[in-house]
Please model this.
Amino acid sequence: MKVTEWIEKSDKTLFSFEILPPLKGQSISDFFEAIEPLMEFNPAFIDVTYHREEFVYKSRGNGLLEKITTKKRPGTVGICAALMHRFHVDTVPHLICGGFNKKDTENALFDLNFLDIQNVLLLRGDSIKTEGRFIPDPDGHEYADGLIEQVVNMNKGKYLGEDIMNSNTTDFCIGVAGYPEKHFEAPNLDMDLQHLKRKVDLGAHYIVTQMFFDNNKYFEFVKKCRDVGIDVPIIPGLKPITTKKQLTVLPSIFHIDMPQELVAAVEKCTNNKEVKQVGIEWCTQQSKELMKFGVPCLHYYSMGKSHSVKQIASSIF
Model:
């Protein structure tokens, strides 16, 4: 079922979460065991992230280095299929611009369509660590806008190959990312909202937000979206903090603010067990307030670890 269909048919706030594919070489049974505790809350859908290739340099002797492509977390499509088979749950694979050309994207969408996966979350993706800025593949999409247009075209039966005759249409539900505190590359939030509105005008069906720790950021973001004519569902993304180190790591990576009250509570903790409890309590209160606001779904960034999210879900679902 599509994400938007889940939202339309539900008269209460839905539960969903995002996971990482297991690292190369890890057991799929360990992966299932890690998320199984969350299945009792009947998630409407599970997002599965995509991780692009990285480059490493290995010495070949005589001062020469060999550039090798490596991918630590392969298998987004396969993991989605495995989740559907094991848990009979809808999945949302992420598709990104980096590491794909347009033909690669089309082939991935073919596979998803054959598997009856009806949802995709379309993202530009991050730059490779060894590159100072995002560089698209040759004949790849530079921005998520291009991905959206390609999926919309496939939904209309329009493919890249002009020789495809009597083509069937796909029927993907398209999700995109929203940034309550703006994307770090945007000059300001208003400009970022214009880019987001373009994605919706192109055919995006719903928005999932970047994590935030201050609900007022989300409330203001929703109002600004509605003011500029964005009328699709806006799903809040939440992450319970689990370590003291995340006070600096998360703002550095995701360019978000931490409320001083949360920072003070974490700073008082003497170990990460206490931090995890603070994170659970904070995210639980966030969730309850968001439910009162009437959000369509609460989406948790679990990172493949279920304990904190299970504690939160136990309190509100």
Observations:
- The radius of gyration is 20 Å.
